[in-house]
Design goal:
The protein has 455 residues and is an alpha/beta fold. The chain contains 14 helices and 19 strands. Helix 7 packs parallel to helix 9 and helix 9 packs parallel to helix 10.
Length: 455
């Protein structure tokens, strides 16, 4: 029996790809092992979104190659590099990493088993090139019955509702890696969620590169004239999906991640407000508020639109928590732009927020721009923005004292509220006797840093 090890790096979207690979490997009769030294084949599922992720991925590959060279028992081990880095640098990597046995891209996650079987019958010579299976412009999307082995806790799951992205943000390489946006059908998503809830899952996290664009690509395909106006009544959307998921029986949360501000509508706001199983939480990366920066970033929004959208969301969805992220130090960002961002953060008092320093990525429009910001200026702006966010959080947490919260217990003594997504947000410290994987109602009596403490 072939034993396979897998290292999964990057975001939740990449994690699902790892889960799908494992599902297909197990279906093919292969055995998974957490010990790299025991694996006949080691897969590194890489990330390549920003420079830091790229360095982590390269380090993991080098560690695997070095480990094989140093361990006599691993001499015949095959190493496969998968994921975004393989997809992004499909032509360069085989020459840069000659010790890797094979490279696979996003369209090969369901074909990994036969690729491994083919590798096992090959003895590579010192001068032979790695197998390169990566295809350009990925087309694959998962379905409700796609074999998958979940790597998340039993009470929580990610559901990828679409793949790819149609946006042309000047700082982002994702559309070139993962291809054009392609939605699953609403029926496919509903069937998967229904099965997950029946298996005991308490939290469904809906993800894609742009969840708010769900279904819209299918409207376009169905229109005889692509230039004719889009009629949302003739197709499914994120709003119709949420309403359908809300009808599934059971006590569970539905959480929205990775929404784009350009595609929000009053219909979606109303759907969230009316669907009790949808958490009062929205992840909506805004990136900036300055019209100058939003234009240079190609974000398809402006400051007035964003401020109005936030106003409509807060009015339409009582007790909503908006989670967002910003980029500081983008090429051309002036002190005036940055100060406007700080004022915006202080005024809006986002319930959850994060800041990234701009990362120059080859292949993006921003990489070719003039007026790149000095790294010390980027760091200062990052520190200033994070301090503003922290001040907001301290004030918010103080107001949470005395409130009753419904929480999902993650591990003994640690839970998350509606306002906290897994792995990225704060936690709630609770009684260690509360059963893991269940909901509980607790009273908040204190806070520490970003986390709440329940009595």
């Amino acid at each position: 029996m072939i034993k396979v090890g897998l290292v999964s790096l990057g975001c939740a979207k990449n994690l699902i790809d790892s889960e799908v690979m494992i599902g297909h490997l197990q279906q093919a009769g292969m055995e998974m092992t957490p010990d790299a030294s025991l694996a006949d084949v080691l897969i590194i599922n890489t990330c390549s979104f920003i420079d830091m992720a790229k360095k982590e991925s390269i380090g993991a590959v080098h560690e695997a190659v070095d480990g094989r060279a140093e361990d006599v028992q691993r001499k015949k081990q095959k190493i496969i590099v998968a994921g975004c880095m393989s997809q992004r640098f499909a032509t360069e990597l085989p020459g840069l990493m000659p010790d890797v046995d094979a490279f696979i891209g996003l369209d090969q996650v369901t074909k990994v088993a036969p690729i491994i079987e083919g590798l096992m019958g090959i003895t590579r010579t010192e001068n032979s090139a790695p197998d390169n299976h990566v295809t350009t412009q990925p087309k694959w999307i998962p379905d409700y019955d796609t074999p998958r082995f979940r790597l998340t806790p039993k009470h929580m799951a990610y559901v990828k509702i679409a793949e790819g992205c149609n946006h042309t943000c000047s700082f982002c390489i994702i559309p070139r890696i993962r291809g054009r946006h392609r939605s699953r059908t609403q029926e496919s998503v509903v069937r998967e969620v229904r099965d997950l809830v029946a298996s005991g899952v308490k939290e469904i996290n809906l993800i894609s590169q742009d969840t708010t664009y769900f279904g819209m690509d299918l409207w376009t395909e169905s229109r005889p004239n692509p230039r004719s106006p889009v009629d949302s009544t003739k197709g499914h959307s994120l709003a119709t999906l949420l309403r359908e998921l809300n009808t599934i029986e059971g006590d569970f949360w539905i959480r929205l991640l990775y929404t784009h501000p350009a595609h929000w509508s009053d219909e979606l706001i109303q759907a969230i407000a009316e669907c009790k199983k949808v958490t009062r939480y929205v992840d909506m990366p805004l990136q900036h508020i300055s019209d100058n920066m939003l234009g240079l970033m190609k974000r398809e929004t402006n400051g007035a639109y964003i401020r109005d959208l936030i106003k409509r969301m807060r009015a339409g969805i009582p007790d909503i928590a908006i989670r967002t992220t910003f980029i500081v130090g983008f090429p051309g960002e002036t002190e005036e732009d940055f100060n406007e961002l700080i004022r915006f953060i202080e005024d809006e008092k986002f319930e959850r927020a994060g800041v990234f320093e701009y990362s120059r990525e080859d292949g993006t429009r921003a990489a070719k721009m003039e007026d790149h910001i000095h790294h010390m200026t980027r760091k200062r702006r990052w520190n200033d923005a994070m301090r503003a966010i922290q001040r907001n959080m301290e004030g918010l947490n103080e107001k949470m004292k005395g409130r009753q919260l419904k929480v999902l217990v993650e591990e003994p003594g640690v839970a998350r509220g509606e306002w906290d997504a897994p792995d990225i947000d704060a936690t709630v410290m609770v009684d260690k006797s509360l059963p893991v994987g269940s909901f509980a109602t607790v009273g908040v009596n204190d806070w520490r840093g970003y986390d709440l403490i329940a009595g």
